[in-house]
Design a protein that fits this description.
434 Repressor (Amino-terminal Domain), four-stranded antiparallel sheet, alpha+beta
Length: 152
């Protein structure tokens, strides 16, 4: 056993091994199989993560959901928002979603549902639809901001 991959168990003081295995993880009420990395004690079977390890495996699980459901990636969501010239809060208002929703989508910590994904794809393919949503949700698009600046 690689001694660099073992450490004392914080529960019983036994030897805990770094473990990598595929196992199910729950994401939004569903289970997906994902490569997990954690420590498991040989004596008491306690399993634990170091800081950041659980976040990493959670992001892998979210990526798996995106892949299985054919959802846009965080980079693609960010690209659509930037193509429209909006900040994250402006994009959230445009879409009619909650505060920090776009932040979570772009960080990869939460997947968008299929309805939101369809709306994002529609805005990407036909950005003129953003004008309708901007009027409906009182969001200024970059073109209208420029027009207001020139008028002033």
């Amino acid at each position: 056993m690689d001694t660099a991959r073992t450490e004392p168990c914080p529960v019983c003081g036994g030897t805990a091994d770094f473990t990598a295995e595929v196992r199910p993880m729950n994401v939004g009420g569903r289970s997906v199989d994902v490569a997990d990395e954690f420590y498991r004690c040989r004596n008491c079977a306690e399993e634990y993560y170091h800081p950041g390890m659980l976040d990493t495996v959670h992001k892998r699980a979210i990526a798996r959901v995106r892949e299985e459901d054919d959802l846009l990636t965080p980079e693609q969501v960010r690209g659509i928002r930037r193509k429209l010239g909006l900040t994250q809060p402006e994009f959230e208002r445009l879409l009619g979603v909650g505060t920090n929703t776009v932040v979570r989508w772009e960080r990869g910590t939460v997947p968008q549902n299929s309805a939101a994904d369809s709306l994002l794809r529609l805005l990407d393919e036909f950005p003129e639809n953003a004008r309708f949503l901007a009027e409906r949700h009182d969001v200024q698009l970059p073109a209208s901001r420029k027009a207001r600046t020139k008028a002033a």
